[in-house]
Amino acid sequence: MTRGIRILCAVALLAMPGRATAHLALESSTPARNSTSTAAVREISVVFTQRVEARYTDLTITDANGNTYKGILSATGTEGRAFTLTLPRELYSGRYTVHWRAAGRDGHVVADSFHFTVDAPAPAPLPDEEVVADPQPTAQTPPVQASVVSSPTAVIVRWLTFAAILLTIGSVTFRGAVLARAAQRAPDATDWQLLERATRGVAIFGAISVLVLLAPRLLIQSLELNGAERMWNGEALGNVISGTLWGRGWMIQLVAGILCLYGGIRATESTGWTILLIGAALLAFSPAFSGHAAAIQQSVVITVASDALHVFAASAWLGSLAVLFIVVLARIRAGGPAIGVLVNCFSPLAVLAAGVAVLTGTVAALAHIGPLSDLWRTGYGRALSLKLAMFAMTATAGFINWRLIRPALGTDRGSRVLRGSSAVELAFAVLILLFTAVLVALPTP
Q: Do domains 26-123 and 152-179+189-441 have the same CATH topology?
């Protein structure tokens, strides 16, 4: 076993804390679910399975007649999981429903309810002490709505964002690990500067796409957290950006996109590609803050770092392949010998990056699922299984390119065959991104 493999295995073991809870749910409550209290109740306490965003957490109480009771909600403890609702008056005999709504650290909103019963007769009230039921929820709480992060629009926006990230990172790795090495090996094989300019164009397009997609991402998240009435509100939008972990990921995408765009524009100079590489490395962290990695409180640093490594490795593999196809194969801009050199330089990068992507992806899968049956019994597991199947098909297509087509390169016919097989490989890659965009919105088992 080589030293590199030993290091990767060690990282995998460190990043695998056992099954971690990434699905926001109610862990416990006082009064407990379906319990009966023999004393009047004035405080309702809840503990969630993970840390939540306090600004977007709310509890309301309704009785059997549909009346709603407001109170003061306060966080208790230091973990950001426990909250207590203090009512202005005690609740006496009757059946009550606690409606809760909370946003996880990944920005996903979950709403649910539970019941409890009070068996404590109310004392005879004085006329001015009668409870006036408030039929409206608290003013700062938007009405409960279906989650929008799983809507087709949100999935498409995430899909396009992942594709833009993949192209941006892929452009940097293709230029540094494939194009530069090929130009050194065969300086006279083709016009390498032409290929580098085309690669720079793909990088700039990817960076612009990353920045443009920030707007719909923010509006979708504002709709999720603030509701339709306040989704355009400037203060509400600012709170989403500055007051949530999801907002930090959004800011990372903004800064990284600016760096990548600036680096792409300056790529004709020696420092341009270095700036682009820094931006691309930072860009790999952005998806982790709006996905399940950020929600795992037990080992958030490790899971976020592992997710960023997964994004970078997958982009280095599939993004470099996409750039190779766009820059070289789609129009056959280089002759057969040059394509052979490029593919020979791409193959080691693809093998290493694919290995890291599979390893880190496996770590994430083991952290989010329990028994193996979750892969076909839950929505998250089925989507994950389809993504893994697409990974396997992509890897198989890549293996065929490496073992059967690569040795035949050097002729125009071999280049055309490679173009067709690479298109098939990229089609599977597009599906991988689609299933990833769906997985982000699904609760883990």
A: no
Q: Per mean pLDDT, which range of 131-135, 156-160, 327-331 is the poorest?
A: 131-135
E-state strands within 335-376: none
Query: Which CATH topology does 152-179+189-441 take?
Result: Formate dehydrogenase/DMSO reductase fold (1.20.1630)
Distance of CA 340 to the CA centre of its chain: 36
**φ and ψ at 273, to 5 degrees?**
-70, -30
Do you find a cis peptide bond into 31, omega within 30 degrees of 0? Answer: yes
Tell me how far apart the alpha carbons of residues 280 and 204 are, in angstroms, rounded to a whole number: 12
Gap between the Cα atoms of 414 and 245, Å rounded: 49
**Among candidate residues 429, 418, 421, 208, the one with its CA nearest the CA of residue 328:** 418
Smallest CA-to-CA distance from 172 within 208, 196, 150 is with: 196
Residue whose token pair is 């700036």? 275
| 421 close to 397: Cβ distance less than 8 angstroms | yes
- Residues 259, 302 contacting (CB under 8 angstroms): no
- Domain residue spans of the chain: 26-123, 152-179+189-441
Distance CA 240, CA 247 (A): 6
CATH T-level fold of 26-123: Immunoglobulin-like (2.60.40)
Backbone angles phi, psi at 118, to 5 degrees: -110, 130
pTM of this structure: 0.80
Q: How many residues does the chain have?
A: 445
Which has more pLDDT, 229 or 208? 208
- Give the whole-angstrom CA distance, residue 216 versus residue 221: 8
